[in-house]
Amino acid sequence: MNTLNVELGTRSYPIYIGSGLLGQKDLLQQHIKSKHVLVVTNTTVAELYLPLLIAGLEGYVLETVILPDGEQYKTLEWLNEIFDKLLAKKFSRNATLIALGGGVIGDMGGFAAACYQRGIVFLQIPTTLLAQVDSSVGGKTGVNHALGKNMIGAFYQPQCVIADADVLDTLDDRQFSAGLAEVIKYGLIRDVVFYKWLEDNIEKLMARDKQALAYAIEQSCLNKAQIVAEDETETGLRATLNLGHTFGHAIETGMGYGEYLHGEAVSIGACQAADLSRRKGWLSDADVARIIALFNAARLPVKPPKGLDAERFVSLMSVDKKNIDGQIRLILLKHIGEATLPMGVDLCLLTETLENYGRE
Ligand code: NAD
Ligand code: GLY
Fold this sequence. Notes:
alpha/beta, Rossmann fold, Dehydroquinate synthase-like, alpha domain, 2 domains, seven-stranded mixed sheet, two-stranded antiparallel sheet, binds nicotinamide-adenine-dinucleotide, binds glycine
């Protein structure tokens, strides 16, 4: 097992990365200080991993909330199921909430933990690649609104993250690729050495070589932990983690939640951001081709959906947490391995990308 730390003073916490961690009850129990424990998961993950988790929680007063599976259930309405259970079972302020699942469950469980009685202890057990390399780390929690993705939420850090690489064995190929989109993102925004490693090792990763995968998860978490330690509440640097996300969120919202996986939308969005960076004169044609090739090699989509024209894109992109006074602000690339901070972009240039990139 490898342990990384997210350094946030008194709210610092460990990320445990390794094999067979879900069965290690001491690892989990050292972070539970209460008698009452609520596990939040979904139907798919419950069937696969809830029994193993529950086996490590003997002796606690244990309740579970099993939500339906899908991004379309990441809503305030379904969040209420968690509050209903916590209240019906009279869980008090020292209770512990464990989120067992992908990013949807982690974001919802974390937001419920942040809100219930103004904050209860929260543990993350991410079970998708995307959740292990990104969403479980850093304390962004929340739900979607029909008019905008992740628009309702809170920063709320977990007490620990337990990333057991073994659970990825049951992840289907499409979801696995979606996770790789966020892995590639770290290379693009701040780690050119890791980016080159990804180019050299993408075939091993796609074959789910355990050693390569462990390295990719560790490097991703290391990058994320460093960024979060420097800028927990996204006053600047943390926004670089949003490379491709403003385009991507527009795709997710515009096409209907669940149509494109989050990682797929990020892959397309990162390529659109690369195209715009080229139009700004920062990336070369060869850089953009190299970026598209890596997402392609990870079997991710790289072209925007035909059903979303430039005008609709702009309208959707104008609902984004990075925007200031209604102006769309984006993360672009100066080079492969160096992102800009959020910057206002010329609408004409953005429209050129939206109308031309991937539309041929
Ligand atoms: P997800 O949570 O929907 O999980 C993807 C699918 O995999 C689901 O069907 C799930 O049931 C299934 N699954 C989960 N673990 C499995 C396993 N081990 N084996 C088999 N199937 C499994 O999606 P995701 O990609 O994990 O997360 C996407 C969400 O994360 C989005 O809502 C996105 O906004 C959010 N996100 C949040 C942050 C953050 O910082 N909080 C960062 C990135 C993404
Ligand atoms: N995934 C974006 C962030 O954590 O800031």
